[in-house]
Amino acid sequence: MQKLLVFQSLWAMERRRPDGLEWPLEEKIRMIAEAGFDGASIDFGDLAFARQATSLLREHGLTWQIEAFISTVEALKPILEGARELGGTHINLLPVVRPYTLEECVPYIEGWRALAAEAGVKLNIETHRNEMTTDLIFTLHLLDRFPNLRLEADLSHFLVGREFWYPISEENHALIHRILDHAWGLQGRVGSREQIQIQIDFPQHRHWVELFLTWWDYGMRSWRRRAGPDDSLTFLCELGPKEYAITGADGYELSDRWLEAQKLKSMVRDLWARIEAEEAGGPGDRERTR
């Protein structure tokens, strides 16, 4: 049976408050477990930290996905070694290179995919600003060149980067749908056309929240058609600290990101449940799909 795994980002557990108070790692993972998340995302750039974090997650019966900031083909090798040692659902590779042409991207993509295939580790490429996938159209050209490329879709970057007008045009919905039709992991952050991360409970932001729920609905349905009967889709709640989070004049954030992450978790689980019910022949909500 297909499953949805909702993770919380460890990076998103950083507080960065003016008073300097931070939760220790043990506390962060206890909070993630008690809040009912299925796991967390861990940066494997520091393998000693990854060992500590995965050990704590395992104690709580949780799993994890691997975050990897990679700028060369060879740099993926130690991440793969860590994955073989510690496990994880997949590697989410953030391609920290900025080729000018599509052809310059080819050796990176081919090299990363070959190494991952040899190691038997699932590899997704994240859509993210200031990286190879910074631009929506350039990323679509990558998909033309690599039709089977697995993406990790963080749509907030494309919304800000392209400054889509609201309501979103059918043309721009279609562009996002092409990304989602190649997504094997979803990332949870709500943005607007001008801000990368907005507060999901503020009433003036409701239409942006509904937009992202519409896109995630499409992405989940697309994934369910492509994935195997026993596969799991990961959804990573990644509400980042400042400068992602908006702060007031006192330096404190305008909302509680930890509470927002838990609400986001409930929202996407409800969305998944509605899709399951509809596909099983029960009552569903088709209004979110486009």
Automatic annotation (TrEMBL):
Pfam families: AP_endonuc_2. It comes from the Bacteria. InterPro entries: IolE/XylAMocC-like, Xyl_isomerase-like_sf, Xyl_isomerase-like_TIM-brl. Residues 32-164 form the Xylose isomerase-like TIM barrel domain. Keywords: Isomerase. GO terms for molecular function: isomerase activity. PANTHER family: HYDROXYPYRUVATE ISOMERASE (PTHR12110), XYLOSE ISOMERASE-LIKE TIM BARREL DOMAIN-CONTAINING PROTEIN (PTHR12110:SF21). This is Xylose isomerase. It comes from Hypericibacter terrae.
